[in-house]
Amino acid sequence: MESVKKVYDFLENAGTFYLATVEDGQPRVRPYGAMMLRDDKIYIMAFGDTNATKQIEANPKAEICAFKGLTLRIECTLVKDNRPEIQKALIEKMPVLKPALGENGEKSVMYYLSNATATFYKMMETQETIKF
């Protein structure tokens, strides 16, 4: 899907994006950068047993924000997909992660963005909204 690729390319070019989750009603935000596009889905990687993965398991609704000239905000549901081929594909894309994630990415937790609404902003003005 061309629209998903546009969102992915923006995140890739931004380099770092910020993932917001919720824990006991309190927002939690952290920087991320490991991601890939596969089967027309944007995947992000989290390290195994962490606060982030526990928060996502308890409430898979999340928001992602990135900035690179424009601001991109994505409201989404994160869906866990830990198939070995998905984990391995991330390691192939980002081999620098092997020491932390294992030879085939087995220590990673992979999520894809579902029910997503991605909105690009310039200053306070909406430039484009993409749903996927």
What does this structure look like?
With 132 residues, the protein is α+β, with helices and mostly antiparallel strands. The chain has one domain: Pnp Oxidase, Chain A (Roll), CATH 2.30.110.10. Helices cover 27% and strands 50% of the residues. It contains four helices and eight strands, in the order αββββαββααββ. Strands 1, 2, 3, 4, 5, 6, 7 and 8 form an eight-stranded antiparallel β-sheet that branches.
Topology:
Layout: H1 2-14, E1 17-23, E2 26-32, E3 35-38, E4 41-47, H2 51-58, E5 61-68, E6 70-80, H3 84-93, H4 98-101, E7 108-122, E8 125-131
Antiparallel strand pairs: 1-2, 1-5, 3-4, 4-7, 5-6, 6-7, 7-8
Query: Based on CA inertia axes, which overall geometry fits?
Result: globular
**Averaging pLDDT over every residue, what do you get?**
94
Q: Helical residue percent? A: 25-40%
Strand proportion? over 45%
CATH class: Mainly Beta
- Can you tell me the residue ranges where pLDDT is under 50 for at least 5 consecutive residues? none
Number of domains: 1
**DSSP strand count:** 8
CATH architecture: Roll
The major beta sheet can be summarized as: 8 strands, antiparallel
Annotated CATH homologous superfamily:
Electron Transport, Fmn-binding Protein, Chain A
Helix/sheet category: alpha+beta
Count of alpha and pi helical runs: 4
SSE arrangement, N to C? HEEEEHEEHHEE
CATH fold field value:
Pnp Oxidase, Chain A
Cα Rg: 14 Å
